[in-house]
Specification:
303 residues, 6-stranded mixed beta sheet, 3 helices, globular
């Protein structure tokens, strides 16, 4: 009887083992359903912003400020930013149409377009010495020599030593006049006026707009007695028609230092001071560099 019971136990155990093998591993406990996730509302797609652009007149300057700027440039050259911004001077003779500019920021290059508008300047008729309009052969040769003397001054690219706004060339300066006007001398059209005129009686002290190096002191056929100062960064200031010069070529000057006295030398219709700038070769309106830089136009997304 005991043997029979033991056999029955062994058969039951074997049957249980076979059932486990047939059933496979024990099923895990049922999992709870995942918790519901919050619903995220996506913003409606926004239209992409247009390319960066800004309107500028010939003789104007655009300013493009930004953080971590490392370089600025256009199709001609590259330069360093100044006071956290890239500045783009546009020559008085620049034709209407787009100009491509760029800057580097945080290792990336960004592009913008300067939309050059038609020149908005008026025409001005003046009566001057006829010999300053219809030149004799020797005077034409002199003018050609003087232009060759001045041209290289605008190609220099040294470290800038200026900051904006620049100083006025007269202690009690009236508003500058006539930049960009289309000149007509003795009924004969001539090139647009590349600087600003200040009314000043003969003998008025003329001051340096900023620190710099005097790169030329001359007495030219058209400009009369004149002084050219290089302020670095491709910026050159010039004062013309002086009655006297008080500095020499190669001399360093400070902002507000006297360069000479105003007068009526060269081609003039009366005593006054001609004050001009070339910035990286471009003739720009002096009033813009004497004002706050934040007022200059800046590229923004086009509509």
């Amino acid at each position: 009887m005991g043997v029979h019971i033991e056999v029955v136990k062994r058969l039951a155990a074997a049957a249980g083992l076979l059932a486990c093998v047939a059933a496979g591993p024990a099923a895990s406990a049922p999992q709870a359903p995942p918790a519901p996730q919050p619903v995220v509302t996506l913003d409606a797609p926004r239209p992409a912003a247009g390319p960066l652009a800004v309107d500028v007149v010939p003789g104007g300057v655009a300013r493009w400020p930004g953080d971590v700027l490392t370089a600025c440039g256009d199709a001609r050259e590259t330069w360093k930013p100044l006071a956290g911004a890239c500045f783009y001077p546009v020559d008085l003779g620049q034709a209407e149409g787009p100009l491509a500019v760029w800057r580097e920021r945080g290792g990336l290059r960004e592009a913008a377009t300067l939309r050059v508008l038609p020149a908005p300047y008026a025409e001005e008729s003046l009566e001057v010495d006829p010999r300053k309009v219809r030149l004799r052969r020797k005077d034409r040769a002199r003018v050609a020599r003087e232009r060759k003397q001045v041209a290289p001054l605008f190609s220099a690219r040294t470290h800038p030593v200026f900051s904006f706004p620049l100083g006025a060339p007269l202690a009690d300066a009236p508003p500058p006049r006539n930049f960009g006007t289309r000149r007509v001398f003795n009924d004969e059209p001539r090139a647009p006026h590349g600087g600003a005129d200040y009314r000043a009686k003969v003998g008025t002290p003329v001051l340096a707009t900023e620190a710099g190096l005097v790169v030329l002191v001359a007495n030219h056929f058209f400009a009369g007695r004149s002084v050219f100062v290089d302020h670095g960064g491709g910026l050159v200031s010039m004062v013309m028609h002086l009655s006297r010069t008080d500095v020499r070529t190669g001399q360093r000057v400070s902002r507000g230092e006297r360069l000479g006295l105003s007068g009526a030398t060269g081609r003039v219709s009366g005593p006054h001071l001609h004050f001009g700038f070339r910035w990286r070769g471009a003739r720009v309106d002096p009033a813009l560099l004497l004002g706050e830089p934040g007022a200059l136009p800046s590229p923004s997304p086009s509509p």
